[in-house]
Amino acid sequence: MSINEEYNVTHSHEVSFIDENGELKTTKVPVVQELARQGLINDHFPKRFIALPPRTCTVDDCRSATPPVIDIAKLKRDGTRELELRRLADAAKEWGVFLIENHGVDDMVLDDVKDVVKGFFGLSFEEKKANVGSYKSVDNMGYGKNFVKSEDQPLDWIDRLTMKAAPVDPDEATNGLLIWPKKPTNFRQAVEKYVEKSRKILDGLLQDLAESLSLDKNAFLQQFEPKESEIKVRVNYYPPCPRPDLAIGIMPHTDPSGLTLLLEFGTTSALQVQKDKFWTTLQLPNDNSLLVNIGDLLEIMSNGILNSPWHQVRTQLEMERFSLACFYNPPAKSEIRPVVVGDSPEKIYKKVGVEDYVSNYYKISPTTSKEAIMYAKII
Ligand SMILES: O=C(O)CCC(=O)C(=O)O
Ligand SMILES: [Fe+2]
Predict the structure, then answer these.
(1) Residue of 60 and 219 predicted with greater confidence
(2) 3-state secondary structure of 240
(3) CA distance linking residue 338 with residue 340, whole number of Å
(4) Which conformational region is residue 266 in: left (phi greater than 0), alpha (psi within -120 to 50 degrees), or beta?
(5) Model-level pTM?
């Protein structure tokens, strides 16, 4: 029985993908928010949402920890900078993910973002579709779902909305980029304000990370050219899930970005990173701290010294969760170069085109291990 018969799937996302024979295919996948609304019965969980391996890590069988916390105010003060830089380097090498506090983004800016995101997902499906432009592509833009590559693969328990915030394309309409929702009316304005602040934070961190590795402070930042560097915003919505032991919010992956800045709200304790071979649930404070994670492109630029973490999101019973990720990338048409860190001159990564890297990432994802980065490895 197909899921459409098994459940009353009245609402679907249309997803395009290139199949294993290189052919462009389009398929329909259920809108999770609408499935969750139907109040699925526990022992009748839709098969398409059963993750493989079947048991995702639940609270009982994995570790849990607070990631390192980096204080941006300490990075700015002479007396405290040196120690905080050392803590930053350790966090980026060992965890690949860290919280930042005193980042300077006003609560009001963050609250506005949370409000418009909740406002968008609070609309009916019909209103969402009517208010968000369509963007038919295979690179995960628009309102829909990530990593769909076949008709029968396990699906993530998530709905998401991805937009390009920079560079601003003067010809958005013809390039199909008019995907910003028109409702809530201040959606774009609120998110763009946050993105502007995010860029400043991430530029500062790129300099701090370089200095923390005893490199020239612009060693990474100079590869992010301000006018052409790219910021994609992905809003993730994870509805409550009746079977958190079977379904997964986002399957394991690394981010194909330089840096990712993540704001989560709704509930916490859902994001997990693989650390020392264990899935570790990140205990994040329920405040306005932001989470930074190293993406594949920065791992390549740092010649493998910084670690782009393998991460996933688990689902939660009766609790919804939102996150907003800003993916910060060097210009799509540029090439990134690894900078050798430390005494050992051995290069493990090579120069790669950003667009080539990202399109290969989407071509081969999802994968069961950190495979995409092999594209940039010197073998
Ligand atoms: O929701 C989260 O905590 C993480 C989201 C994520 O990994 C992503 O959007 O790439
Ligand atoms: Fe991610």
Answers:
(1) 219
(2) coil
(3) 6
(4) left
(5) 0.94
Amino acid at 345: P
Burial class (CB in 10 A: 0-12, 13-18, 19+), 67: buried
H-helix or E-strand spanning residue 64:
strand 63-65
Q: What is the pLDDT of residues 243-279, one digit of tens each?
A: 998 999 999 999 999 999 999 999 888 999 999 888 9
pLDDT value of residue 164: 87
Tokens of 57: 């890590």
> Residues whose CB is under 5 A from ligand 2 (ion)?
255
ipTM over 0.95: yes
Which atom belonging to ligand 1 lies closest to the Cα atom of 249? 1
Strand runs (DSSP E) across 185-255, as ranges?
A: 230-238, 248-253
Place of tokens 């003067």: 170
Rounded CA gap, 335 and 299, in Å? 14
117 in Cβ contact with 188 (< 8 Å): no
The residue whose CB lies within 8 Å of the most ligand 1 atoms, and thus the one to mutate among 257, 264, 271, 319, is 271
**In the predicted structure, residue 173 carries a pLDDT above the cut 60:** no
* Predicted confidence band of residue 4 (pLDDT cuts 50, 70, 90): very low
pLDDT at 148: 82
State residue 237's pLDDT score.
96
Token output for 198: 């995010």
User: What is the Cα–Cα distance from 252 to 368, expressed in whole angstroms?
Assistant: 7
Q: What is the mean pLDDT of the chain?
A: 89
The answer to whether 126 touches 316, Cβ cutoff 8 Å, is no
| Residue 352: per-residue pLDDT | 98
Q: Which residue, judged by its Cα, is nearest atom 8 of ligand 1?
A: 325
Within 10 Å of residue 291's Cβ, how many Cβ atoms? 19
Cα of 225 vs its chain's centroid, Å: 21
Using CA atoms in the order 67, 73, 79, 80, what is the torsion angle rounded to 10 degrees? Answer: 0
Nearest to 334 by CA among 348, 352, 349: 352
Identity (one letter) of the amino acid at 185? T
Which residues line the pocket of ligand 1, CB cutoff 6 A? Answer: 234, 236, 250, 255, 262, 264, 271, 311, 313, 323, 325
What's the alpha-carbon Rg for the chain, to the nearest Å? 20
* Token pair in block for residue 348: 């493990």
